[in-house]
Design a protein that fits this description.
Blueprint: H1 2-11, H2 20-28, E1 30-31, E2 34-36, E3 39-41, E4 45-47, H3 56-65, E5 69-76, E6 97-100, E7 110-113, H4 123-138, E8 143-149, H5 161-175, E9 182-187, H6 190-193, H7 201-218, E10 223-228, H8 236-245, E11 251-254, E12 258-260, E13 265-267, H9 270-281, E14 290-294, H10 300-307, E15 311-316, H11 334-344, H12 350-359, E16 370-371, H13 373-377
Parallel strand pairs: 1-16, 4-5, 4-15, 5-8, 8-9, 9-10, 10-11, 11-14, 14-15
Antiparallel strand pairs: 2-3, 6-7, 12-13
C-alpha cells in the first residue's frame, strides 16, 4: 500500500481530513483506536500538559484538528485559605525556546526549554478551563484531562490533606456529574527531579505509594487517576521500582523529561526516548496500571516503539512546536501538521509502521483488520 500512503501524504499536506481515523480504517484496514485512563479514543496521539493547553482557544483548535486527548496545564493545589505548599511551582513561564538537542550518539533532535513550572493564574480561571474541557469531552470532540501537583512532604512530615480535599473537590464540582468519571493526572514534573525534595529514594517511594490513595480519598465521587512519573536522578532499576510503587494508579505516563542540573532545565530528545524505552523493555510480566508513553514522540515509528512496550497511547509536547519549515504539510495549525506527519509520512508514519509490522509477521489482522491496541496487549506477557 506504499503508493496509497504516498498519495494520502501528498494530498493531506493541504488539509487533514477531520475523520482521518475512519479514513485509515477504510483505506488500510487499520483500527487506530487507543485508550487513555480507561477512556477509548479514536487514535493514540494526545497532547501532554504544558504551555499548549492553558486556554480555551487551544482546546478548540485541537478539537478541530482531530487530536485524541489533551492534558491541561498543571494546577498547583491549594487549601481553602489559598495556601499552596508547592507554591514554588506556580511561577510565571518564560518564553519557550525550541532548539536542537543532539543525543548521546550525535543524532539531532529537538527540545523545548522554559523556566516556568505550573499554572500561575487563579484557581477560578483553571476551573473555568476544566468546565470548557468537560463540555468538549461530553460532546465527543476531545478528551480533556486536568493535571495537578499536590503537596509532597518530606519523609518525616505529614501530608497536607486539606490541599488534597479542597482542590480535588473543586475539580469534581467543575467536572460535574455524568460520564466519564472525573479524570486526573498527577504530575511529578521533571523539575522536581532537580529539587532537593527528590534526592531521597525513600521519600519518593512514599509519595508514589500514598498519593494515589489520598487523591481518591479526597474526591467526592469516583476518580480515575494517571500518575506522570518523572525521570529520577537514579538508575533504571529505581524507575522500575517507581512503577511498581504506583499500582494503585489507573494509568502511568512513562516518563517525564530528563533534568539538566547544570542548566537547571528539563529537556527531551533522543536521550530521553532511549532511557524511557530501555526502562519499559525491562518491565517484568505482571499486573501494572495501563501505560501511556511520552518522550521524543517525533514519528509514527516512535509511537509504535512505545506501543510495543505496552503503551496504549502517547503524549507529545515538543513535536507540536517545531518551526513550520520542519513539517511537510503546507497548511493548517501546528497540531494538524504534526498529526499529518505522525500518521501519513511514507517512511516513518504510523500507518506505514503498522503495515511494516504486518509484513514482517509482528502484527496480525483480526477479522481483516490490524488493531493498534494489539501491540500494547502483546507486551510484557510471558513468551
Amino acid at each position: 500500500m506504499s503508493s496509497e500512503i504516498e498519495r494520502d501524504f501528498e494530498r493531506f499536506k493541504r488539509e487533514l481530513p477531520s475523520d482521518f481515523s475512519d479514513h485509515v480504517r477504510e483505506t488500510y484496514g487499520i483500527d487506530l483506536t487507543a485508550r487513555y485512563l480507561g477512556e477509548t479514543v479514536p487514535h493514540p496521539i494526545g497532547k501532554g500538559s504544558g504551555q499548549l493547553s492553558l486556554n480555551e482557544n487551544q482546546l478548540a483548535e485541537d478539537a478541530r484538528a482531530g487530536l485524541a486527548f489533551v492534558v491541561l496545564k498543571t494546577l498547583i493545589a491549594q487549601d481553602e485559605a489559598g495556601s499552596q505548599s508547592m507554591a514554588a511551582w506556580a511561577i510565571h513561564e518564560t518564553k519557550m525556546k525550541v532548539e536542537r538537542r543532539g543525543g548521546a550518539g550525535g543524532r539531532p533532535g529537538w527540545t523545548v526549554t522554559w523556566k516556568g513550572r505550573g499554572w500561575d493564574r487563579s484557581l477560578e480561571e483553571y476551573l473555568a478551563l476544566v468546565r470548557a474541557g468537560r463540555d468538549l469531552t461530553r460532546a465527543g470532540s476531545l478528551l480533556v484531562v486536568p493535571s495537578v501537583k499536590y503537596h509532597l512532604p518530606r519523609l518525616a512530615d505529614p501530608f497536607r490533606d486539606s490541599e488534597y480535599r479542597y482542590t480535588t473537590r473543586l475539580l469534581a464540582d467543575a467536572w460535574g456529574a455524568g460520564a466519564p468519571p472525573l479524570l486526573v493526572e498527577k504530575d511529578f514534573s521533571p523539575t522536581l527531579a532537580g529539587d532537593a525534595l527528590a534526592g531521597d529514594r525513600d521519600q519518593i517511594m512514599r509519595w508514589l505509594r500514598e498519593v494515589p490513595g489520598r487523591i481518591r480519598a479526597a474526591a467526592p465521587r469516583a476518580v480515575r487517576l494517571a500518575v506522570k512519573l518523572m525521570n529520577a536522578r537514579f538508575d533504571d532499576v529505581f524507575q522500575l521500582d517507581m512503577m511498581e510503587a504506583c499500582r494503585d494508579a489507573d494509568a502511568l505516563v512513562c516518563f517525564n523529561r530528563l533534568f539538566d542540573a547544570e542548566q537547571g532545565v528539563a529537556y527531551g530528545g533522543w536521550d530521553l526516548s532511549a532511557r524511557n524505552l530501555r526502562v519499559l523493555d525491562a518491565v517484568a510480566p505482571g499486573v501494572l496500571p495501563a501505560l501511556c508513553g511520552t518522550g521524543n514522540i517525533c514519528s509514527g515509528r516512535m509511537i509504535v516503539e512505545y506501543a510495543r512496550r505496552g503503551c496504549e497511547s502517547v503524549q507529545l509536547h515538543t513535536f507540536f512546536q517545531l518551526p513550520l519549515s520542519e513539517y511537510p504539510a503546507t497548511r493548517g495549525s501546528r497540531t494538524e501538521r504534526a498529526l499529518h506527519a505522525l500518521l501519513f509520512d511514507p517512511g516513518d508514519g504510523l500507518v506505514a509502521a503498522l503495515l511494516e509490522l504486518e509484513a514482517t509477521g509482528r502484527l496480525e489482522r483480526r477479522n481483516g483488520t490490524l488493531h493498534f491496541l494489539d501491540l500494547a496487549a502483546g507486551a510484557h506477557h510471558p513468551g
